[in-house]
Amino acid sequence: MKKILTICAFTFACLLGTQNSFAQAKQANATIQSNIKEDVKTISNSLGLNTEQTDAFAEAYVQRSKLYESEKSSMTNEVKSKIEQQFYAKLEGILTKEQFERYKSMNKK
User: Fold this and answer.
1) 57: burial class by Cβ within 10 Å (0-12, 13-18, 19+)?
2) What confidence tens digit (pLDDT) does each residue in 37-65 have?
């Protein structure tokens, strides 16, 4: 009987720990999403993007962030470079030439 109670108590403690882990992951994800929205808004204002461009830029920015997150464990300079090249290729299709040059110069600083 004592073993059963011990096992039940241990299982309950493990479940509580799991809930805390999921809560922290959700909070971290919400923080990342908030940061992305702020970054997109700032960049959109700096470059003078219209609504269509802002939406497309936000989508590309989120995709890049997801790629960074998924490759985090095996991130090398080569992988980072490939992700950035894909992102810049998308931006060239979204932004005007002047906006794209301004974006590149903003990121060099």
Assistant:
1) buried
2) 888 889 889 889 999 999 999 999 889 88
Show the DSSP H helices in 1-109 as ranges. 2-47, 51-70, 77-94, 97-108
Helix axes 97-108, 2-47, angle to 10 degrees: 120
Give the DSSP letter string of 63-92: HHHHHHHHTGGG--HHHHHHHHHHHHHHHH
- Number of residues written out for the chain: 109
H/E run at residue 49: none
- 92 Cβ contact list (under 8 Å, min separation 6): 100
Question: Helix, strand, coil % (nearest 5) of the chain?
Answer: 90, 0, 10
The one-letter amino acid at 91: L
Give me the residue spans of the domains in the chain: 2-108
